[in-house]
Amino acid sequence: MTTDNKSIARREFLTVVGKVAGSAAMLRTMAAMGIGLSAAACGSSSAAPGAPVVPPPPPPRLQSPRPGDWPANVGVGKTVVILGAGIAGMTAAIEMKKLGYTCTVLEATSVGGGRNRTIRGGDTVSETDSSQLCTFDADPDLYFNPGPARISHHHEFLLGYCRQFGIALETFVNENHAALMHSATSFGGQPQIRRRVLTDTRGNIARLLAKAVNQNALDQDLSPTDKSNILAALQEFGDLDSAFNYTGSERGGFPGQEDTGSRQRGERVTPLQLQQLIGDIFFQQRQDFTQGLEQQPTMLQPVGGMDRISRAFEAQVAADTLYESVVSEIRKIANGVRVVYSDRFGSVFNLDADYCICTIPATVLRSIANDFSAAHQSAVSSFAYSSAGKIAFQSRRFWEQNHNIYGGISWTTQDITQIWYPNNGFGRNDGVLVGAYMFGGNAGNQFAAQSPQQRINSSVNQGGNLHAEYSAEVGRGISVAWPKVPFQLGAWGVSDPGILLSPDANIYFAGEHLSLLQGWQEGAILSAYHAIDGIVARDIA
Amino acid sequence: MTTDNKSIARREFLTVVGKVAGSAAMLRTMAAMGIGLSAAACGSSSAAPGAPVVPPPPPPRLQSPRPGDWPANVGVGKTVVILGAGIAGMTAAIEMKKLGYTCTVLEATSVGGGRNRTIRGGDTVSETDSSQLCTFDADPDLYFNPGPARISHHHEFLLGYCRQFGIALETFVNENHAALMHSATSFGGQPQIRRRVLTDTRGNIARLLAKAVNQNALDQDLSPTDKSNILAALQEFGDLDSAFNYTGSERGGFPGQEDTGSRQRGERVTPLQLQQLIGDIFFQQRQDFTQGLEQQPTMLQPVGGMDRISRAFEAQVAADTLYESVVSEIRKIANGVRVVYSDRFGSVFNLDADYCICTIPATVLRSIANDFSAAHQSAVSSFAYSSAGKIAFQSRRFWEQNHNIYGGISWTTQDITQIWYPNNGFGRNDGVLVGAYMFGGNAGNQFAAQSPQQRINSSVNQGGNLHAEYSAEVGRGISVAWPKVPFQLGAWGVSDPGILLSPDANIYFAGEHLSLLQGWQEGAILSAYHAIDGIVARDIA
To answer: What domain count does chain B have?
Structure first.
């Protein structure tokens, strides 16, 4: 569950935020915010020998706290109740146990991982008003990651856990020049192969800039040497001819290359017209999503499904976790926290601890009775979430066999927004196609409002505008609309974390929504480190 | 074994061609040439009912011939001797057997695959004047593909065989924004992370073009609507601010991101200076190599090593192959061909066949006695080859653990040219690093002239300018310099195939060098189809 194309995503978030929270300004704040940035600079403050015997001041908190920052055994004799066994909650338990804290994780469902899930044949998807059975064939390559589905190469804490826990990784293909770009209002609604869009856009940009340079229009900015150098660079950048014209490029492929079987290798396609390449916000903006810092290659995925991570984390903390334990109250008590929860039989329990780390999504948390400050309650109540959803189908790999598409993403202006081709099992007969991934705004809400069968119908219908094979070949559709998933009620947080980065008495907050990397597992991990850091600071004070 | 960055590669090829063959003009010819393009258009010429009983004219040959074009059983009773069990020769045997031809493959070495090889611990690399033992640990992820190492997603015939033969494929990471760009003469010789180079180049190009547009310098080319649209597109393309300035971008990453452990996520690096980004032919040209049609994502590799393909092809034709059979003469005889060869004991044999398909590299073929026409002999004698070579090391995966580099390629102006990070076994402790891949010109020849130990020394030394870990961590170096590999004597052909696309009597020529895709396995396959097509045309005439 990730934010593609930062700029468009930002716009869509603003829509959501504006609607739900009444203000877009918070996002500007967030862009400048780093978790822990408000704390003091790095350094040591251990008392010098012979200093007076007074408690030393708390050491300055390191920016971007992380394991290794905290003293051994700092948590011995202290108890923590962690609410939610998602990636944030399990990270908190894993790391705090190492520091000596006694941790209890309360998890509402029967399994850890939170939104990190993988759906396989035989699995059930339960939403608030529906239930679906996944009927994919039993096969290690036939799975669907409805939540997070890719890992940035620089999400180094998550990758570190994968290394530590022996989770095999493989490439996630985010950029595929054989994938399609489909705008209902450009090119007569005909999908365009990505290689042509990218190539001809670069060619035109390079041609126009070269022309301006050659007309001396940029002499204020460019010295004669610069001009000569940039012309050479533009020639390569856009594949211009020796006169700096762009008349098409072999990079755009050969005629008929959208389908296998073309006999025209070595020929060139006619370039797409600049007017169409720039005349539509879709083509203006959907080309560049893999330039975003989180979306750049290399992207990774666990071999066999994203929940390999959930299972590995869970192996570390299952003994500390109470499953099917639904929190009903979060109370402040003297020097601690009381959590009231009920078990699967409806029996109600109180659990007291020195600290609480609450990773419950704000969408769910706002309905739980609590003693939070007015400011914390307000932040929880108004926290906006992406309404993302996905649908997946099992199908013959027509995209590989008929179109040479191996992994990657096609884009469309339709509600389905994206089609993802599987990045595993290349060359096998069947694969799982993600037939829609709408990550916010109206499309996500409408998707959630549809019944599972309506989602299938609309996704097959829309997908057919990109691939003629759709109606005959895709089947066994199964969808997840995060706003309707119990104990999640949203895909990921998009509001400014604000006050929720600060504890309320002994209650700390964590979760992907409280990080610089909202919607990413790495964000969940960083948020856990931030909460741990706050608690440790108190225990060494 | 592939041509990166078409433009630079072209220059390097021109150097080679100019040196060896005396003319660069042939390359211009080649660019416009398609194998079989000179033949007639598609269509059927089967005689109408009641037509006079005369032999029908040969049917027009299809452009880009391929399996399915040829009539069943056309080869029954005909014999073919195929010289060389590389990808071209084995493809010819596989397909001609299906048509009823009796095929005999003569292979000089003890194994099929030709330059498609994978080196693992315990393997020996023999060159004309040296022998090396590979000492990698025995492990399925520790291997080295010294020849072809990646497959374009549109190399559909090769991919079709992989599907047919059950060869598992995974992604080859060609583009990694965490990899390095190192020019000895730019940025004080400090390697730059690719994400910054790409981001800041795009930012500057977009900024300059936006400025020219806003100054009305391109009003001849752009209508008012175009101007408004291209400005919106440029803002996204280069991540410009609202005033169309470029002051850096989060796409360039955060400070210290070259190494793991930075605490500055959320901050921005200062953009690189345009003058440095364009002031060096290296930065002008090495940014864009993954835009080339053969280099665009998705790229693929067989799981476990490229020789999975050799083994699978070989399983189809081993029974038809005489190994360790070294050809000494290729003679024309009445209605056929005589090939003289010697076996491992030095015994000499004549093998007569109706046809010969000769896939022996021109570098080797020119020393074999033959009856070729003067034109064919001249083409064989002057055919230029890339002098590519590679070296590989086993090492701790410091690139992953210390730098978040997962697969992909770093570039340098030094002779080693490229460093390839392994695309398999992510997260494991050790990996095989390709420490040099020079694909032509002086660097390749000098590499070939060095002893294996000298190659190790120079590659470790040069690699150390990109990665400080090199001297302490990389080891077990093993190299292949294709100009010195017996029965290959070169990496891939770079001359115009010219007359060698036409048979000489009953002798047909094939091999990657005789294709539009020189240096690629798909080219070898296409060349085999071309040769088969020529033979079939005669047999149905």
So the answer is: 3
Is residue B169 situated within a structural domain? Answer: yes
Rounded to a whole number of angstroms, the distance from the CA of A468 to the nearest CA of chain B is 20
Contact call for B287 and A237, based on CB within 8 A:
yes
Check which CATH number belongs to the domain holding B215 and give it: 1.20.1440.240
Chain A, 214 to 253: residues with Cβ < 8 Å from chain B are 215, 217-218, 221-222, 225-226, 229-230, 232-234, 236-237, 239, 250-253
Distance CA B377, CA B375 (A): 5
Say what the ipTM of the complex is: 0.91
CATH number of the domain bearing residue B525? 3.50.50.60
Cα dihedral value A481, A484, A488, A494, nearest 10:
60
Report the residue of chain B nearest A226, measured CA to CA.
B275
Q: Contact B251/A208, CB-based, under 8 Å? A: no
Q: Residue B154's domain is classified under what CATH number?
A: 3.90.660.10
In this structure, the answer to whether residues B204 and B260 fall within a common structural domain is: yes
Q: Which two tokens stand for residue B234?
A: 């440029």
Which tokens belong to B380? Answer: 């064989």
For residues A90 and A202, state if they share a domain: no
| This model's pTM is above 0.80 | yes
C-beta of residue A251 within 8 angstroms of C-beta of residue A239: yes
Boundary residue ending a domain (B279, B300, B332):
B279
Secondary element (H or E) of residue A283 = helix A281-285
Nearest CA in chain A to B232: A284
* Residues A439 and A396 placed together within one structural domain of the fold: yes
Domain span at A92:
65-113+308-384+494-539
Q: Are residues A503 and A360 in the same domain?
A: yes
Chain B residues touching residue A175 (CB < 8 angstroms): 175, 297
Distance CA A74, CA A290 (A): 42
The pair of structure tokens assigned to A429 is 């007969």
Q: A278–B64: do the CB atoms touch at under 8 Å?
A: no
Identify the closest residue of chain B to A526 by CA–CA distance.
B265
CA of B370 vs chain A CAs: smallest distance (Å): 32
Residue B289, in any domain of the structure: no
pLDDT digits (tens, 9 = 90+) for A137-175: 999 999 999 999 999 999 999 999 999 999 999 999 999
Residue B406 to residue A176, Cβ atoms within 8 A: no
Nearest CB to A260 within list B156, B168, B406:
B156
The answer to whether A64 contacts B263, with C-beta atoms less than 8 Å apart, is: yes
Helix (H) or strand (E) holding A326: strand A326-333
Locate B65 and state its tokens: 């011939």
- Give the residues of chain A that fall short of pLDDT 70: 1-62
